[in-house]
Amino acid sequence: MLKNILTLLLLSFSTMLFAQTKTVTKKTAVKKNIVKKPTTPKINLDLVKINDSIPALIPFKKEGKAGFINQKGKVIIAPVYSNVGFFTQDCNLLNSANTAVRKFGSKNYASVRLNGEDFRIDQAGKRVYRFKDEDLAKCPSEFKAQLFHAYIMNEYYGIIEDSKFQDASDYRQFSIYPQFDYLYILEGDDLKNPMIIAVKNDRFGIIDTTGKIVIPFEYADIKRNFSWKLGRLFEVTKDGENYFFIDTDNKSYSENIL
After folding, report:
1. Cα–Cα dist 115/109, whole Å
2. Which of 227, 173, 235, 160 is nearest to 204 (CA)?
3. Is 43 helix (H, G, I), strand (E, B) or coil?
4. How far apart are CA 95 and CA 71, in angstroms?
5. What is each CA distance from 149 to 50, 171, 184, in whole angstroms?
6. Which parts of the chain sit beneath pLDDT 50?
7. CA-to-CA distance for 144 and 204, rounded, in angstroms?
8. pLDDT tens digit sequence for 137-152
9. Diameter over CA atoms, the chain
């Protein structure tokens, strides 16, 4: 009888010990599954912006070839192209019937030309798509009429706001009374506050619709292109040959390449 009791106690103890061992093993396994460090995306320091209002990569030219620098002036994409555009959307690709190429129409890519052919490149400079006529869709019309226009009087240029201007004999109806050798309103997203190329004494600068000088009159030319609309930059030259980009603070980003 005593022997049977001892045997029963030993069996009970063994069962409890085995159950505890299984429980510890399961808990340990759970702990191992929990210990996972979250991965954080790597930041490309070459694309960190100094000025948030302009692109991280800016076109530049060297010896007749175009590439891209960052905001610090470091060459990121070597100048091997005959022409480059900003990293911006391409509506022809965004609306393509070929769904596989639509992604290349996003602002993560730029259009470039090499040996007479047009490509889209990524921010690392890799050519990821070659343009094909059959892929291109027609862009939807986004025309917006300008609110301001240049007005010539006595061979001088001024600025008028169409909705308010009626009588040229009343100087108060001019936003800027005619006094400049030349004025050209740049296309931009803010129709109420456009940037205006102005010429005075054969020097180019930038003014706003109140006549305030944004960029001083120190340049030989300022290009009348889409750089303001696409990149909030002005393409200027001091010698009439070598063009580079400046922002609204007159800071150059591609005059001195690192």
Report:
1. 19
2. 235
3. coil
4. 31
5. 34, 16, 8
6. 1-29
7. 26
8. 999 877 788 999 999 9
9. 130
For residue 13, what pLDDT is reported?
Answer: 44
pLDDT attached to residue 2: 44
Give the pair of three-digit tokens for residue 46: 């070459």
Phi, psi of 254 (to 5 degrees): -140, 20
Show the CA angle centred on residue 206, arms to residues 204 and 210, nearest 5°. Answer: 130
- Contacts of 48-52 with CB under 8 Å at 24 or more apart are 51/247, 51/251
Tell me the CA distances in angstroms from 9 to 13, 17, 31, 88, 168, one per residue in order: 6, 12, 33, 80, 114
- Tokens found for residue 245: 């980009």
Write b or e for each residue in 80-109: b if 16 or more Cβ atoms lie within 10 A of its Cβ, otherwise e.
Answer: ebeebbbbbebebbbebeeeebbebbeeeb
Helix (H), strand (E) at residue 14: helix 2-34
DSSP symbols for 178-231: EEESEEEEPP-S-TTS--EEEEETTEEEEE-TT--EEEEEEESEE--SSHHHHH
